[in-house]
Automatic annotation (TrEMBL):
Belongs to the PC-esterase family. TBL subfamily. This is Trichome birefringence-like C-terminal domain-containing protein. Residues 84-355 form the Trichome birefringence-like C-terminal domain. GO terms for molecular function: O-acetyltransferase activity. The chain crosses the membrane at residues 6-23. Pfam families: PC-Esterase. Residues 315-327 have a biased composition (Basic and acidic residues). GO terms for cellular component: Golgi apparatus. Keywords: Membrane, Transmembrane, Transmembrane helix.
Amino acid sequence: MHARHVLVPSVFLFVVALCTVVLPPPRWPRSTSFFQSSWLPPVNRREHGDSADGHPCDYSDGRWVQRDGHAGAEPERQDRLRRDSIGRNQWESMVCMLAAAVPPTASASSSRVYERSGKPISRHKGYLAMVFADYNLSVEYYRAPMIVMVHRFPAANETGSGVRGAVRLDVLPRHADRWAGADVLVLNTGHWWNQHKTVKAYRKLFYGWRPLDKTMRIKDAFRRSLETVKDWELSSARFSKSYFFFGSYSPSHYSNGTWDTGGSCAGHREPLLTTNAHSGEEYSWMNAMIAKMTDGIKSHGRKATFFNITHMTELRPDGHPSGHREPGTPPDAPEDCSHWCLPGVPDVWNQVLYAYLLSTRYDTRRNNR
């Protein structure tokens, strides 16, 4: 895997101690279209594995194919609905896909697949760690929507300035120590980096506890946060053998308004065949910064990947919960056109992630230790 409605990205972590993981057959979504978009950073095809015909594979380039026997999207909207975190969407998808691959004799024993601290899977805050004991594997989720440290000031300390919290652009969250040493680390952020979620939400920006100008551009603040991630990753020898992925922006699909002004995606029932000429203008700068940051890490010999899911996701306005909200959601709550139904789009993200790992011969590492 939050502004409790919909704009909620997150950070999550895969800790993979055993190297061969078998996923179930993909639940591919429906209809057709290509995944490529002109504004996305170029992909170095030499880094990717070859396809069956010998040509390099670009996993951000493809088409949506309808699955046999599933003509419409509506039935899947009623399965698992989540609204707390886009990173949580992907983490839960990964957990379910891995659990489906566990042999029945192993999964029948609840003691072999469990949450490490006994927390319920419905927990929304903090972190979760699902353990697959038979495979020496844990899949962990950490909530850190801005990736860097966010402090909330106690009400008693608030002055008349309206500043309720602080974003430390130079420091990662306290639980970042737990991320170090993971075999596979997947980060994502984006939706919280806007004026509404930072300055207008009464959070002041700090760098080394020096307050920054409240009018500081969000782009500059985002860039500084990524520099902090890069410096942190390169400073630890524990990351020397890790596979580091930083996900691109996951588009929302609000029409006729924003999430808090009556925007909707309820009318979509099929994937788009193409995106319009202006799609991506709002967040292409984020992807460009993320790609530059991952390239910088890679230039130091680390295994870093810009995990490009933006365009394939842009084509799926039909995949959001929309008005189908979790039980107990107030009837007048905004539609959710930001997070994803499961099974759904995040399953494909994880299939792409798995393909990236296989293309780097990740499945052979156990034999080389």
